[in-house]
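anyone seen this seq b4? input:
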Amino acid sequence: MKKKKNPGEKLTKREVVRRILFWISVCVFIVAVLKLGHIGYTYWKNNRGYEDLRHQAQLTTQAGQDESATAGSMDPGDNRGETASPGAEETTKHEREDILPPGSNGVDHDFLKMMNDHYIGYIVIPGTEVDYPVVRGDDNSHYLRYDYYEKESISGCPFLDCRQEADFSEFNSTICAHNQKDKKMFGTLDRYKSKEFWEANPYVYIMTPNGNYRYKVFSVYDQYYVDVIFSPHFPTETSKKELIDLALERSMYKTDVEVSIDDHILTLYTCTENSDIRFVVQAVCENY
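predicted toks r here
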């Protein structure tokens, strides 16, 4: 005679299956939390390193804030088109040194150069989290994976195209940095998608050993990474005009900022959710 199965035995097997599934879910959850925690810690560690560097390198003072308010009200475009004369270069550098971001009294270039020989300048964009040293490496991939201290890092460091002149004398100087989820590096650059934000924060500041430059944003757009705007050089008037025309045509909104082939342009870009597309912000120098 065949033995009947105990109904309780079936329930026990189901309970075992439930428990197995439960513990698998718990393990998956723990692994996910650990991964997120590791990513968060990595971001915190990298940001802390830049915060320490910022405190050591910047010469910010309350007096500097008052001075910068005065400097910010001057017209840095007054020396456009002037013919060089004896002593003009020294005077121009002094005028460049007067151009500072609000609340800043400059940076210690000697210190930053001592920390990293690839240092070329310091970028600040009011209204964003962009407040970093800029480097120019031996290639255009190293500083995607290494920070200013030359330590492997998911944050990297803002860098100028290695094929361009380090003194920002190119017709178009190009700086790239990561678009971090914690809004560091160029993670807040996309605030320029709002015209209201641009109206309140139209300037980008680059402080260098040769003086400081103030750029006014004139174009904002998304663009496929393979494009003429990412070319290192624009040797002819035609190529320069093409860049300006493309930038003005693609912009998400009109700024009415005047740009000519005799100007110096700054192109900032970062990645987007689409791996083939970059978010681009272009600005024209007002006091080169």
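Strands lie at 119-124, 131-135, 159-160, 172-176, 203-208, 211-224, 265-271, 277-285. The longest helix spans residues 7-57. kinda curious what u guys think
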